[in-house]
Design goal:
Blueprint (H helix, E strand, L loop, with lengths): L1 E2 L10 H25 L9 H6 L2 H17 L2 E19 L13 H15 L4 E8 L3 E8 L2 H9 L9 H13 L7 H7 L11 E7 L9 H10 L3 E6 L6 E5 L2 E5 L3 H10 L4 E3 L3 H10 L3 E10 L1 H23 L4
Parallel strand pairs: 2-3, 2-5, 5-6, 6-9
Antiparallel strand pairs: 1-2, 2-10, 3-4, 7-8
Helix pairs in contact: 1-3, 3-11, 4-5, 4-10, 6-8, 8-9
């Protein structure tokens, strides 16, 4: 326990002096009673119970004063309180194909708009992070309850490179775990369901992409790893199946939405697939986020508890004094 105003505790040094003064007062009173008893002026021989009762009110008053002084020193302690929280990672495709304008104004801008609309729907208890993926993947915003920072991170996303849905999902799982996730490609290829990265039942990945896969690892195999880890993956298709042509390094490249792959990734984790312009679908994803109770440590001031305890002891001492002796002593 620490104190916000520790200098106030100096007042506790007066408590022993107060007790000593009380003891001296009781002794003088006993001596006077003995003297008067010797002269036959007062009765002697108070019962043991009465002798004990005589000191109880003062003991309560002294304890009350001690609690109140400690309360004035602003005691602070670490307490564990339950908190509801969940983690969502927005994995956004930033490959060259997202420059396509078969959805207006472009696929990447449509993905950003949908991602920011999703963030706006989330309660403060949900921590949100952002992963950008092309040929590789990087966490551009660690999970946070500061949703404004998440929106700014989405706005900063820029285009470049090919597409690796698998790399994006691996980075998203690492962001949920709070540490890099190492997945052996050979183990992934042989039996991905047996790759153990831990369990994160309150984790969700929302992936925004046109689904055009150009490099490893296999996103469906990574989704199987996520399923074993308790993470749900929801996929948002951005683009059209008719597709269009984009210019990449002076070359014309045909590109189209691969909804089948995105659906397969989502279904592997019992997630859902929606089109990027499906506002109702994004709202439905919000309802599937698993908010769990977690004990968190907080440094809290407990002055009120000490003050309340002191007040209770003070009242108890006064009531007993009036009840036993007819006055507050």
């Amino acid at each position: 326990m620490t104190f916000g105003a520790p200098w106030v505790l100096v007042l506790l040094l007066g408590i022993p002096g107060l007790v000593a003064a009380y003891v001296r007062s009781r002794r003088r009173r006993s001596q006077r009673s003995a003297a008067l008893s010797a002269q036959g002026l007062v009765m002697t021989g108070a019962s043991p119970r009465m002798r004990v009762r005589r000191h109880v009110p003062f003991g309560l008053f002294a304890a009350a004063l001690t609690f109140m002084v400690v309360g004035m020193a602003r005691p602070m302690t670490t307490v564990k309180t339950p908190k509801r929280e969940g983690t969502v990672i927005l994995a956004v495709d930033v490959s060259n194909s997202m420059k396509a304008d078969d959805v207006k104004p472009t696929r990447i801008e449509a993905a950003k708009t949908a991602a920011k609309a999703f963030v706006d729907r989330q309660p403060p208890a949900v921590k949100i992070g952002v992963v950008a993926f092309g040929d590789g993947a990087v966490v551009v915003q660690a999970p946070t309850t500061g949703h404004l920072e998440v929106t700014k991170a989405i706005d900063r996303l820029s285009i470049g490179g090919g597409t690796s849905l698998g790399q994006g999902l691996v980075a998203a799982l690492g962001a949920i775990a709070g540490k890099p996730v190492a997945i052996d490609p050979e183990a992934l290829a042989s039996d991905s369901a047996q790759v153990d990265i831990g369990y994160f039942g309150s984790g969700t990945v929302v992936l925004f992409s046109d689904g055009e896969e150009t490099s490893r690892p296999d996103p469906v195999s990574v989704a199987e790893v996520a399923s074993v880890a308790g993470v749900h993956i929801h996929t948002i298709g951005v683009g059209t199946e008719a597709g269009t042509v984009v210019q990449v390094n002076g070359f014309s490249v045909a590109t189209a939405l691969d909804a089948d792959l995105l659906q397969q990734v989502a279904e592997t984790t019992d997630g859902s697939y929606y089109q990027g312009d499906d506002a109702a679908g994004l709202a439905a994803i919000s309802k599937t986020i698993d908010l769990r109770f977690k004990l968190v440590s907080r440094h809290s001031e407990v002055s009120g508890l000490f003050s309340a305890a002191g007040a209770v002891l003070l009242v108890a001492g006064a009531l007993l004094s009036v009840l036993w002796f007819g006055r507050v002593v």
